[in-house]
Design goal:
It contains twelve helices and 17 strands. By secondary structure, it is of the alpha/beta class. The protein has one domain: 3-Layer(aba) Sandwich (Alkaline Phosphatase, subunit A), CATH 3.40.720.10. The strands form four sheets. Strands 1, 2, 3, 4, 7, 8, 11, 12 and 13 form a nine-stranded mixed sheet that branches. A four-stranded antiparallel sheet has the order 14-15-16-17, with helices on one face.
């Protein structure tokens, strides 16, 4: 037996010396708030807003059909960090809190010797939300004030400065393995990009068919036919002005992510880093009469997100198999630590042998974001969204990628099958009671003003 062990050890050393990639030292998870997938060049945009991310995508696995678990921040991020759906965590809105008992990507890697650091730019993700658990260092400083309400936030430049500190700290001890999560806030409204970026994009936006349309201002955050109150800036009512602001924010955050990626390379971690890029949700820019808002709908503009993953030693690929952000935690733990998938069966290994031939069943829900409850599912090339009306769920069926044509009448059996599959998935979720962190009156008012509470 000793000879066998010695032979296996020698074989492993020999294999390591035969050109195989060294094990990763850095896991860098970058998430951006309110970023639609179709705003990136790699996902078909011709606006040229994201040259750094498009260059990164050229060497990455590009997932074309990635979906968030919800269309607003905390539930989506909680699913990303835990591999569980928000209902399982008891998270129904941005006032909820991540339970202490649930393992996260940070707690799992930290228990296996990884140093862990988090940097967030969105006040909703401050440490009181529970997402800081497992991080050795969690930077939730918010030195700036948002334009309309004056609530705390951190710009992409300041967020990148803090993220660079975390990444550079990973090089100080050669044998250290580090997990760094960075969350950017900027594309979230109100759209207030730096410099003259908005003005440079404005002429093109005015050429859109509805670009010069004028909208009134609403009294809440839903944006149903109006500009949400929290988005209203400089007494502006023109559609093009807001779209230009949103896209200028994306352009700005791409520049800062480019700076962060350059730091990874200059630190000598380029071939030792697994880098994941995604978003927590998207944004409606007029689809179905919803303007500059998210949370209350489940159209692709709100729940389809970019997902780019670069793994050392693996070439780029374009993946059309449907995936959910809930897949990401178990997939990364399997990739980095060889851990088996959760026995509950939620989430699949996105990077194992033959993974591209599989398919997840993305599930998403509006939860407590709106008085109208909506739930949806992706399966077999179709998307089914059910809206609760009078205690009954009325469903709408679409082909994936085409939400212009509703197909329930034309394909009733497909609609019935997906309705049943959605019901079975929801019935199988191990729901938890909602956990709420202690909020003082000021915090509750901030959440309300941010558009997350209507009370």
């Amino acid at each position: 037996m000793r000879r066998v062990v010695a032979w296996l050890a020698a074989f492993s050393l020999a294999a390591a010396g035969c050109g195989g990639p060294p094990p990763p030292r850095l896991l860098l998870l970058i998430s951006v708030d309110t970023l639609r997938a179709d705003e990136l060049g790699v996902y078909g945009s011709s606006r040229g807003l994201t040259p750094n991310l498009d260059e990164f995508a050229a060497g990455a696995n590009v997932f074309t059909l990635a979906y968030a678990a919800s269309s607003f921040t905390l539930p989506s991020v909680a699913g990303l960090l835990t591999g569980r759906y928000p209902e399982e965590l008891g998270i129904w809105n941005n006032e909820s809190g991540l339970p202490d008992s649930v393992p996260t990507l940070a707690t799992e890697l930290g228990s296996r010797g990884w140093r862990t650091g988090g940097v967030v730019g969105n006040w909703v993700l401050r440490r009181e939300s529970g997402v800081a658990r497992g991080f050795d260092r969690f930077d939730d400083r918010f030195p700036e004030k948002e334009a309309v309400r004056g609530w705390p936030e951190r710009s992409a430049e300041a967020t990148t400065d803090a993220a660079i500190e975390s990444v550079e700290g990973c090089t100080q001890i050669p044998s250290t393995r580090c997990f760094v999560w960075v969350h950017y806030q900027d594309p979230h409204g109100p759209y207030d990009p730096p410099g003259d970026a908005r003005e440079r994009l404005l002429p093109a936006e005015r050429r859109a068919e509805d670009g010069t349309r004028s909208l009134s201002v609403g009294e809440d955050h839903r944006g149903e036919g109006v500009i949400p109150r929290y988005q209203f800036l400089q007494d502006r009512h023109e559609v093009a002005w807001y779209r230009a602001g949103y896209r200028a924010e994306i352009q700005y955050v791409d520049q800062q992510i480019g700076r962060l990626l350059e730091t990874v390379e200059s630190a000598g971690l380029g071939d030792r880093a697994v880098i994941v890029f995604t978003a927590d949700h998207g944004e409606s820019l007029g689809e179905n009469g919803v303007w500059f808002a998210h949370g209350s709908r489940l159209g692709d503009e709100q729940v389809r997100v970019p997902l780019l993953v670069r793994i050392p030693g693996r070439g780029p690929s374009r993946r059309d198999d449907p995936v959910t952000l809930v897949d990401l935690m178990p997939s990364l733990l399997a990739l980095l630590e060889g851990l088996p998938l959760d026995s509950r069966g939620l989430g699949r290994d996105l990077f194992g042998p033959g993974a591209e031939r599989g398919a997840s069943t993305p599930y998403f829900a509006t939860l407590g974001a709106d008085e109208v409850e909506r739930v949806g599912i992706i399966a077999n090339g179709f998307k089914f969204v059910a809206t609760k009306q009078g205690g009954v769920y009325a469903g709408r069926l679409y082909e994936v990628g085409d939400e212009e044509v509703e197909l329930s009448a034309a394909a009733p059996q497909v609609a019935a099958d997906l309705r049943a599959r959605l019901g079975a998935l929801r019935a199988g979720l191990e729901r938890s009671a909602e956990t709420r962190p202690q909020l003082d009156s000021e915090d509750r008012e901030r959440l309300r003003q941010l558009g997350y509470l209507d009370e």
